[in-house]
Amino acid sequence: MDAQSRGRADEIDPADQWVLNPQTGDYELRLTQSGGDSSRRPTTPGQRGSRRAGAVREGGGERRSDARDGGGRGNGPRREVPAQRGRRATNGPRGPEGSGPDSAGRRKRKQPKSRRKKALIWTGGVTAFVLVGLSTGAYALYQHFNSNLSTIDTGDVGNKNVTSDAPLNILIIGTDKRTGKGNEGYGDKGSVGHADTNILFHVSKDRTNATALSIPRDLITNIPDCETTLPDGTKKVIPGTQNVRFNTSLGQDGRNPGCTMRTVEEITGLKVDHFMMVDFNAVKELSTAVGGVKVCLAHAVKDPKSHLDLPEGESTVQGEDALAFVRTRHSFGNHGDLDRIKVQQQFIGSMIRQMKSGDTLTSPTKLYDLANAATKALTVDKPIGTGKKLMSLAQELSKVDTKNITFVTAPVIDNPAEKVHATVVLNTAKSEPLFQMMREDTSLTEVKKQEKAAKSKQDALLKGTKAAAADVRVDVLNGGERPGAAQETVTWLQNDQGVLKSTNKANAPAKISKTTLEYAPNQADQARALAAMMGLPGSALKKGATDAEGLQAMVLTLGADFKGAGVPITGPAKAPADVPLANAAKAECAK
Prior knowledge:
By secondary structure, this protein is α/β, with parallel strands linked by helices. The protein is 30% helix and 19% strand. Helix 7 crosses helix 8 and helix 7 (280-289) packs antiparallel against helix 11 (364-376).
């Protein structure tokens, strides 16, 4: 609830109202109390500085001109509002005796170090979600921001849990819908909103690293059938289409973000947990909220189409200039969308660095503006459609160090079916190893370290004697998307590997993302032999608790990571060659 809705917008600056509750350790939106009570309110260092500065201005007769003032802040003392009177009328302290915010002289002060730590956690979520400069200030836990959020029901796609002990895949969609003040003049003002900018943000299971995969809007792909929820609540299945641009997975024929999520899953083989969608206003408002974003140009640009007009070298952009920077595609590289993606990645990295700077972390005004602007610009799936749930997700993402966030674009080549190249297709020789690394949760910033750990784990699991192929007994089930995978594997095992005691058990009870091999303790030698044949990673081996009896077979369940009999499932030894990578911690100049 903001100051205006409390009835005193002309006296209360919302930016001064983020205060620390010592009982919960959380920051809350709370009004300054009148008279002597105000000195007892817990504050952050930034708030104390803000109030001191305000006191000087008020005492000197100078009126604040903050945009949220509503134009009428008086110079006299702030008056008490009903919400404050109601709070003080509450009987008893809110926590243990002597610890409540209204118990003057008895409350223990939080040490500045712990306050700053809390602020870092709180704002870290913003940094994580500002990915693409089109994203969200996800620390908005409080009800004040709930009404800003818009949600869409994506049906059975996605993850109904906010977070889990697993890798996280969040699809960030920037639409080309011309909504919002001043956006009608950009290109096709009648656009229904296609998937114009797309980043799949993959966060590792241990939350130490993240890969931000850009998917070109002009990628030719297949869009699967998808179920959507109409405004009246009824369900409708929109038929899929073959060999069309990726950006038509949203908006076209009434498709919603759930259709885009399904399309990404089909392309990458990764399960998409959640989506976040924004329009042009997000870039303008978020870049303004952080006080501008530093960008660097290798040469001066004056583009009449995007209206970008910047000199060579470093500049700080916000609002319309920031939008022009991320939209231009006639000023850099080959004047195409792939080069625009690189520029957008540079902008995003800079915004992340700005949000982690001390200027942002210690400014209550910037934090408030950022949260307000971000949540207004955001549309999400229902499972994360409240400030509290978004906060939980943000806290997971904020654990990733900026230096371990890597930007990469899905490897593509010009569409060979076109004489004039306007679209692209996947370069499978490079894209598939990249997608497999993401499926295996291998960091692009710490590939060698992670591979060494994975290899050590696999070596430990596979160390020891291996059974002869003729002694391996296994039942094969298909839990992936590849039709006939179980029979294909059994045929290969029997004819090429000599595993004659292998049986096709048809489809698994449910789909799984990764192949597993379940074995009993007394089948370890068989498991080692089969894992070596198939190139299974150590994580695929699942040891049971009791020994197998009689002719009991191991159970091999093929997952979405299965690409064909004889194709190793273990992730690639290194990142694909010649695939450009960008790091969020490093500043680069657009060329």
